[in-house]
Every structure is written in structure tokens, then in C-alpha cells.
Amino acid sequence: MRRDSGVTLVEVLVATAITLLVGVVIYNAFFVLFRSERSTDRESARALLESQLLELLFQDIRSSISLNEVSPNTYQIVRLVPSGGTLAERRVTWTMEPKALVTRRVEGEPIRRFSFVHLIDPKDPPFKLRLERVPEGRFEP
Alpha-carbon dihedral of residues 52, 53, 59, 65, nearest 10 degrees? Predict the structure, then answer.
């Protein structure tokens, strides 16, 4: 009996199935990696923006002499700042606007906006800004 050096149809089908299986596994691995990387980028951008916002808020609170809730989600902080060798009062207004936008307005400075719109997952809890007075007389966010 003589055997030809070619391949049979069964061998071709098995090789094709194995190749397709390996291709699907590789495609899924890249898809999961890409989705994970995008999620990580969003989380790190949100953490950076939150740290910048909190640093400014803490700075305002540390140098504050009063805190008033002007309206729901709007707070006005009067703080002392150095000015010409003395301390001058400066009003700072923090507003939590709809759709996860926090605005900081300071007399004599450009308005700062912190937008979390594209950084919040719809499954996350609602974004809120709330300041409360603590018993010792200090403020905390």
C-alpha cells in the first residue's frame, strides 16, 4: 500500500479549527486588555481631578473665617489671604452643578471648573459636595 505525501480533508479541518480557536483566544485577550486599560485611565483621571479639587477645598477651609450655605449645593467661604503685608478677606464660592460639575469662584481669579461628567460610571453613587461644621469649630468636607 502506498501513501501519498498530501494531507487529508480531516487534517485540514482540524488545523483550521485549531487556528480559529487560537485566534478567538488572542482576540478576546486584546479586547479585555483594551477595555481594562480604558477603565484604568478613567479611574486615574478621576482620582487626579478629585485630588486637585480636594486640595483647593482644604486650602480654602484651612484659611477660612466663615462658611455659609448660600443655597443647596452652593457654599461661600470667606478666607484670609496675604495682601500687601496684611491679611485681607476673600470670598470663595463652591457650587455643585448638575451633571457632576463642581465650580470654584474666587474674587479676582478665573473660575475653576472640575467636570466629572465623563469620569463617572453610571453605576457609581451620585456625586455630591457637602460641607458640615464639626463640634470643635473646624470645617471638614
Answer: 170
